[in-house]
Structures are given as C-alpha cells and as structure tokens.
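# step 3/5: fold
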Amino acid sequence: MMRSMYSGVSGLRIHQSKMDVIGNNIANVNTVGFKKGQVSFKDLMSQMVSSASGATEDGLGGTNPQQLGLGASVGSISTIHTNGSTQSTNNPNDLQIVGNGYFVVTPDGGTNSFYTRAGNFKMDEQGNLLTADGMKVMGYEYTEDGEETGTKSPVKINFSEQVKPVTTKGINFKNNLNDAHSPYRIIDTTKTPAEIETHENNTFSTDLEIQDSKGNTYNITINLNRNVLKYDDGGTIKENAVWEVSIPSMTQKGSKTNLLEGNTLDYIMKFDEQGELVGLADANGGAAPFPPIHSLNPGDIDSATAANYFNDDNYKDAAGNFVKSFNLQIQKEGVEFGEGIDLDGNGTIEDAEKGFIKMDFSDVSGFGIDTSIKGFQVKGEKAGTLTGYSIDSKGVVEGQFSNGESKALFKLMLAKFDNPGGLIKEGSNLFSESANSGVAQEGKPGSPGFGGLNSGSLEMSNVDLSMEFTEMITAQRGFQANSRIITTTDEMLQELVNLKR
C-alpha cells in the first residue's frame, strides 16, 4: 500500500526538477548566447513479484514476470547547443558565431581557458578585448608586417601603434590617352624646311605622390603630349601620331626645389591601330634614333628621322622584347627611394644603382575616348597611427591607420568539441571541459569545422517560449497527478485504519 505513496513522492520530485529547468530557461530567454536545458525522466527499479516462466511439456503456456514499479527519477538534464537567432546591435565589439565553435576566454593570460557563445565583448583602457566579466578573449598574434604568427595570446589593441613608412616601389599607370586629343605639336617634314606648329595649351599633365623611406611625400609632375608627324615614306606621304611622356619636376611637399633639375626624362609612346600600347622608347638615350619631340626645331628633323618614331624595332630592348616601362632614378641624401637594380651584374647594389622607381605603362590604352590616365602606387606608405579597428567574418582584427592604410593586428580563436553536450556550465555564459566533452580543438573562424563571425550582431538565447510554456503545462499536470496519488493513498490508509472502530 505504501509503494504508491513513495512513487507519487518521486513523481513530485522529478516534475519539480523539470519546473526548475523550465524556470531557468525562461529566466534566460534574453541572455546572450544562452543554451537551454532539457529534462528527461526514467523509471526506478521494479520489485519482482513473480518471475517469468516458460512453457511446460505438459501443455501449459509460459507466464510473464510480475513487477511493481517503485517510481521515477530524472534520467538526464541536457544542455541543447543549437544556434540562437541573430540580434543586430551595430556595435563593432559584438560578435556572433555563425555555425560551430566557441570563443576562448581566459582569466589568467591563457593558462586556464573557458568557452562561450556570448560575444558581447568590451574594450578596457589598455586595449584588451574582454567579456562582460573581464575575462580576456584569446586570439593569434600578427607581426608588424601583418603576417600571422600562430602564437596564441589575449587580444590586445595598442592604440599608440604606428605603421612604418614604405618607400614607393613603382607607379602603375592605367586607363586611356585620347587618340583624338588635339596635338601639342604638328610636324610636317614634307616641306623644306620642316614646318613645326606648337600648341602649348594642349599638354595633358597629371600629378603623382610618392613616398621615400622615411614617409616624406613628394609630388611628381607627368606631362603627356600627343604629336602628329607628317613625313615622306619612300614616296608615300604618311601622317601618324605618337605620345611623348616627360617628367619635368619632382618636389618635396612644402618645398619648391626641383629634385630632377637637369635630369628631365623623355620617352616616346606608340600605340598600334587597335589602340594597344606597342612600347616606350627613351628619347634621351645615347643610341636613340630620334630626339625628344618637344625640343625639335625645324632644322632638327627630316622624313627619315620622323619615320623612326613609327618603327616598332625602336621600341624593343636588346633581347627583342617591347619595352612598356622605364625606371625613374631618384637619389637624395639621408633617405632612400624605390629599389636597387644590379646594373653591372656583380651581385652588389652600389650607391649609384639605388633609387629606381618603375614607371609601368603596360595597362594604358590609346582609344578615341576621353583621357583618364591615372597612376597607382606600388606599395608606398606614409607613417600612420592607429585610429580604429574592425573585425571581419574570419576573426581578423584589422587596424585602420591615419595614413589610410590598414593592417591585421590579431585573429580571434575558436574552439570546438566532439560532444558539446558534455560541457559544464560555469555561469556567466561560460562553459568548461568535462571528461565527456572531449578536449578543445582550437582553430580559426571560417576554417573547416568552424563557423564564421558576424560583427555588430549577437547570438540570442535558443530558448523557445512556446515550447517552454507547453512543457510547463505538462509539468504542472504531471505534478498534480502525482499529488493525487499521495492524497488517494492517504485516503486508502485512512479507510484501513477505520476498519477497527
């Protein structure tokens, strides 16, 4: 008679445990990165009243065992590690893991680790990236050049950090020179003497900025002139155009001193019938078959000289390759420019072989559309200080500097487990390893097996209120039913007592 009462008591206990879990789930419905709990029950041992028997030879059939159950107990309280929904915050320090993995945080610089899905991080006055409780977020370090080292340490952003200046290695010119641009000079060698018509206002100029090894900035002026030459080519009168590229000046910002004084560069640029660059030729070279066009006088040119400007062979190097770039050499005491070139091939860069900046025109076209030529620096950076940072989907903490450059500073670390359900809840949105979770497997966001990151967002709790309220109803009804077992058993005992009056 007493077994049913104790069964009812056990039923009350387990349904109370279920309500405890449901209550905790609902209490954390708005907790960032919270993982809900789930309860399952199991029955207790059953008392054997009579055991099972098999069929007998005289024809009797077998009998099933007779057992009286002794109640129920909690089978498991599991943590459900499904992903929660996205909450947008627009806070760059808020991070959501989209997929598998946990942030790695530490209270002691990395000796001990905890794991969390809550990415509501903050920054302290020393630049440490921290959890709400002050634990440091772990990541991988980068070198000063922005290369990943694989060394693990707490993420720290040094707002006094600087990027070193880098001298400009070269200029890549892109876009178009208008084939219909009004000519700077018109040279007619079919007349005697040659007739030369100059239009000074038809020069197209563009200014470039370059940096030396200390980050000082210099302005370089590039002049581009379209010239039309008319000449007699073996009895056939031809009229063609070439462009002349000249660099008349280079001055340091804040100064008017021309560092190229007496060293003006002039190159002739030829395009083919499709507007593609044929090549460049040095008009000041010792073996140049033609002089700079801008300096020609009527007596300096005849039809034979004019024809040289259109001979493809004059745009090739000694190996027979078309030349589409030239080197601007700049030398100044106390700084370095560009790169060194071992001109004599002795394996050593002498002082006279330093300071070459490659001016590459390979991507310039000569179509009949507006001139849009523009030079882009190859490397070349001024010094800069850190002004801000961002975190991308692969966990790279990228610093933005005052010179407009950016550089990787850190990469956040993630960890995953073979059995996340085996993790131990430590409070404050933290988990720790257990004997059944498996050892933490560390990795990088976006790599195989690890989720990516979503900056400016947080992972919400995975608690489903509709499910929790439904479970609450079943828990309440289960509790009521078990309480009825106790009251009914009590009434039966009362009747038993009342047999003796």
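# step 4/5: annotate
The first strand starts at residue 37 and ends at 43.
# step 5/5: archive (pending)
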